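As described in the Methods, two query proteins were run sequentially through the folding procedure within a single session, without resetting any intermediate state between them. The first query and its resulting structure tokens are shown here.
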Amino acid sequence: MKKYLLVLMISIGILALAACTNNAETTTDDSEVVVESEAGSITKDELYEAMKERYGEQVLRELVYGKVLSEKYEVTDEEVQKEVDTLKEQYGDQFPMLLQQSGFKSEEQLKQTMKVGLLQEKLAMKDIEVTDEEIQEHYDALKPEIQASHILVADEETAKEVKQKLDEGAAFEKLVEEYSTDAGTVPAGGDLGFFGTGVMDPAFEEAAYALEVGEISGPVQSQFGFHIIKLTDKKQLDPLEDMRETIVEDLGRAKVDFTQVEAMVLQELEEANVEVKDEDLKNMFEPAKE
């Protein structure tokens, strides 16, 4: 994910700093009571001051960034949902734990913070250009997902023995049961499912992509041992025009100078005449001194 978006994600979500009921009682100083006890009450002002001290800059920064940047840039609900879905796919069953560890009480809080990150991305990419040549070059370098099965053994001699038996007509799945040390794939006949580039061991990946569907490799050494690989399926790349928008986004993000994003945001705040009235937070948007 984007570096500055990750920074926002690990912050607390947007908090209801002024949370209280409409019929709350008031104290003698006219501050609404949010908690009552025999030991004393907690007022809205006390809550605000405590939360401001702990989280004030984080929350105010997120709120101001969102309000100012939304005047010039648009982030749709669909764009936010796409980023959330990517996180869910990446973390799977660990996604709820990610929310909790990052300080979000709900997915909606994550979406609010995610939107601010995407607004910053729109700002950072506003002057970045991606040429047709760059798009074509990127597309030509893409590889489709492939599906492969393997037999993993400890040494090259055993791998050669397995390959010889396969050449003599032995069933791949039977030799998986007999030889493979990858217990996780043995029940599936050695099937590793579909995968793309950058997922497997580099040597394994190179050998797998060099095969034709149905072809079986010779011994391939990786950090895990020696593999006999069978390519079982290969997807087709979508046409360039169907992938153009995604490619432009990827290439544009790669060109972003992340060290300049904060300065760009502060420039937007200056142009919007942002003035913090709270004395404790008054200087929070001033550029850092070198």
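Immediately afterward, the second query was submitted; its sequence and tokens are:
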Amino acid sequence: MADKTPRINIPPEVRKYVFDRNSYQCQSCYKTDLSAKTLQIDHIIPLAEGGSNDLSNLQTLCAKCNSQKRDKIDPRFRRLFSD
């Protein structure tokens, strides 16, 4: 297992950037929530698996999809980070 990256609070301006970049849309089920009330910031590669807090590792997921993903690596996004 890779070294776990420490969890940090994501600054509001970074959260806004990720929401804007992802068009306020869940990147798994593609539901849009312009209020962002049901959207969460997710680490594509979980911190527990060595993922980073870098913008390229952040995505928006709705609460339902994020709870289903938990701390697993979603194979649909792994290609973005392959060596």
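The domain at 10-75 is CATH 3.40.1800 (His-Me finger endonuclease fold). We note this only descriptively and draw no conclusion about the first query from it.
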